[in-house]
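Purpose: get a first structural picture of the assembly so the mutagenesis plan has something to point at.
Setup: four entries, given in the order below. No constraints added.
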Amino acid sequence: MMVSTKGRYALTVMVDLAKLSDGGYVSLSDIAERENLSMKYLESIISILNKGGLLQSLRGKNGGYKLARSPEEYSINEILLLTEGTLAPVNCIMQDGVQCEKAATCSTLPLWAGLDKVIEQYLSKITLDDIIKGNRKKMLGDYCDQCDSE
Amino acid sequence: MMVSTKGRYALTVMVDLAKLSDGGYVSLSDIAERENLSMKYLESIISILNKGGLLQSLRGKNGGYKLARSPEEYSINEILLLTEGTLAPVNCIMQDGVQCEKAATCSTLPLWAGLDKVIEQYLSKITLDDIIKGNRKKMLGDYCDQCDSE
DNA sequence: TATAAATCCTACCACCGCGGTAGGAATAAG
DNA sequence: CTTATTCCTACCGCGGTGGTAGGATTTATA
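Result (structure tokens, whole complex):
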């Protein structure tokens, strides 16, 4: 499992906020109820998104959260990277370019590096807007068996 | 982390066996020593490869393991899938097509399905032979900064 | 100004998979 | 019959995942 519930719920929250982004603040309890998720657990996740600058928050009554930018300005890669810490498929690939000491002679390293790039490339080109618009062609590519009806 | 040491070591073993495949059996202790890995831990991993039919084994003195087929007939996807159980990037994607009960209304599902396909596609096209030949162009694609020297 | 509704902060915890270790039984070559 | 090997079962510490609990702080509104 590359993406745990932390990252998945984070994306769910971002999508939820993007769907009803009318400029107002949305409370955490509303989101948790709509998405049927534990509010307390969501709290810790939304805190990461907030501190990372992806959200704006307002405390006190009628407070809540809203997107800091418009949906097409968030890549999925950015959201997942912030919450998960890393999206590397294996331990021996670090995100900051640090390498294993056996790197020079490791014959499997190019494979892992290639896999990492493929994943990053995919997640970087998809935006929050693609998700709320249901852009299946972009997300599923040639494998989308329903794209001809769109 | 999508691929744990179990899958990584499994691939290392397969690559090791592929590199010196002269038809004879190679002992586990030889592999462990060459790759500098715990022999006892490797034992449990190579057992999975053996039971899965990827290897042939011979017990007793001068026994060991060897590849059941030639290197170009193994996809990396096959090796990792067997040892890891699943390569799905998230919990809500099952490998046998089973779906979450919210699947019909889940707006993030196409993203995870697309990511899963991208990963599977990449790992399926690379073979054990590509790794021992060091086929960087195939593994690293456009990102290979050393491919022009080949 | 009191109250309610919300974010923010710190601490805690059960469970499970990962990454091994240990010891011995069965098998085959010499 | 000894030695080298695979094969099998059992065990275990550690850290991360997926939460829960409780309260402090901030803000809008009656």
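The first strand of chain B starts at residue 55 and ends at 58.
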